Amino acid sequence: MYRDARDAVIDANPAALKMLGCARKELLSPDPSRPGWILTGEDGLPLRPADHPSKVALRTGRPVRGVRVRVIQSRSGNVRRLIVDAVPEFRGGGETPFRVLVILQDVTERKRLEIKLREDEEKYRTLFGTSDEAILLMIDEMFIDCNDRSVRLYGCSSKEDLIGHSPWEFSPPAQPDGRDSREKARAYIAAAVAGAPQRFYWRHRRKDGGLIETEVCLNGLVLNNRIHVQAIVQDIGERKRAEEEIQRSLREKETLLREIYHRTKNNMNVIGAMLSLKSRAIDDERIAAVFRDIEDKIRAMALVHRKLYESKDLHRIDLKDYVSDLAAQLAESHPEAAAAVEVKLDLEELPVPIDVAIPCGMILNELFSNVYKHAFPGSGRGEIRIRLARSTDGKTIELDFADNGRGVPPGFDLLAQATLGLQTLVMLVEHQLRGAVRFETEKGVTCLIRFPSKAFFAEEGA
User: How far is 262 from 404, CA to CA, in rounded Å?
Assistant: First the structure.
């Protein structure tokens, strides 16, 4: 933009018109009563006409550079921030300028960014200084700044005790896992610088030598075109002590629970032994058989408690192992009948709680008892097959018990004419396992039991 010796605008390019917010005609033939713009200083106060850069250049004959002003556009009310240079021009070696070249540089956006950056920095400084967590900044593995919480955490007198030092200088020689503190810290810092945020447990050492249990978060960030690492350090000493107390309490409860299982198993075995001794003293074989049946049931339940006592998981046992051991235990209780019967097992590993194991044990006890008593009269040889598996969709547990004995007469309905033992079996399946049972009577007797796995297992995706 050019101004003449009277400071009137005589020419302007489109960029100048845009910055001033007026048309060319308004600029070249201004209406004094309706100025196209208002000029103020950078502080927003009106600028005296004598202080306008172009007037100063005309008056002194010297260039005026870098004057920061605000232009309020009359039409829109928009405010533009400009840097103004005014360069006087002379004609024919004269000493008085005949015009002034006014160069306008729009720095509105730059100024907005500067203000935002300053505000963001103030916010960051406020958060940095008032945070309840220790926050430290590093460059090249060395602290360059920290907040007051960091000073208190490390037991220092001032920030200067931390600035200029490296993290491993406030750490014991080795971490709890045995790794060298310096090597381990440098690996974490390098990963953060490479752009991978880090979160890890770290043992620090205070200035007085005391140890601190902490959780550290490292993040890489760019400040002033340099890569920094921000460390947020949280004292987790209280939390760690609380976790250790919870673990100690859990261990005590596990020990107590194991003792309960152990004593329950022992008490049941004592009761079973007493019943066994009593049955031997009874001459009536029918009554003695009742005693043996009760003894088998008690030992089946005792086996569950033994398995729980021996298990790493105090709430579940592997049904596969339990069924296998129960089959061997019942064979020992019926040595003569079991000697002629081969037991074939097709079992899938299924961890189940006690609420499933005990009903299954009672059911199998009843089925084994019936087979040993009735399926193979006259010491005939035979076979028992047990299958345990989940259904294809994983929602159902399938337990099949089959023998190839003499079976039942044609048309005989096992469920309709069930003995007390079979009635108990059906009740266990339907009420405790919430399942269903049916019998097939071709080529011996097959008992098919189905019960929902969701009733007892917290399965993924269920």
Answer: 38
Mean pLDDT of the chain: 84
Tell me how long the chain is: 462
C-alpha Rg value of the chain to the nearest Å: 46
| Least confident interval from 81-90, 100-109, 263-272, 318-327 | 263-272
Contact 309, 262 (CB under 8 A): yes
Compute the distance between CA of residue 300 and CA of residue 271 in angstroms, rounded to an integer.
12
Q: Could you confirm whether domain 315-462 is CATH 3.30.565.10?
A: yes
To the question of pTM greater than 0.85 for the whole model, the response is no
Across the strands, what pairs with 227? 222
Residue with tokens 């100024």: 111
Q: Which two tokens stand for residue 85?
A: 């240079």
Name the superfamily (CATH) of residues 128-235: PAS domain (3.30.450.20)
For 312-321, the pLDDT digits (tens) are: 776 788 889 8
Helix axes 420-427, 354-370, angle to 10 degrees: 160
- What are the C-alpha distances in Å from 193 to residues 197, 198, 201, 202? 9, 10, 19, 19
- The model's pLDDT over 164-173, given as tens digits with 9 standing for 90+, comes to 999 999 999 9
Ordered alpha helix ranges (H), 371-438: 420-427
For domain 2-106, is the CATH number 3.90.950.20? Answer: no
Asked if 296 and 268 count as a contact pair (C-beta separation under 8 A), the reply is no
Which contacts (CB < 8 Å, 24+ apart) does range 79-85 have? 79/108, 80/19, 80/21, 80/106, 80/108, 81/42, 81/106, 81/107, 81/108, 81/111, 82/19, 82/106, 82/107, 82/108, 83/107, 84/53, 85/53
Dihedral angle at the C-alpha atoms of 60, 66, 72, 75, nearest 10 degrees?
80
d(CA 303, CA 357): 10
- Rounded CA separation 206/204 (Å): 7
- How far is Cα 448 from Cα 400, in angstroms, rounded to an integer? 5
CA distances 177 to 173, 181, 184, 202, 240, Å, are 12, 10, 10, 10, 16
Nearest in space to 345 (alpha carbons), one of 301, 389, 307:
389
Report the run of H or E that residue 38 belongs to, with start and end: strand 37-41
Q: How far apart are CA 282 and CA 389, in angstroms?
A: 41
Tokens read off for 359: 């009903």
Using N-to-C axis directions, what is the helix angle for 319-333 and 354-370, rounded to 10°? 30
* Of 221, 215, 218, the residue nearest 188 (C-alpha): 218
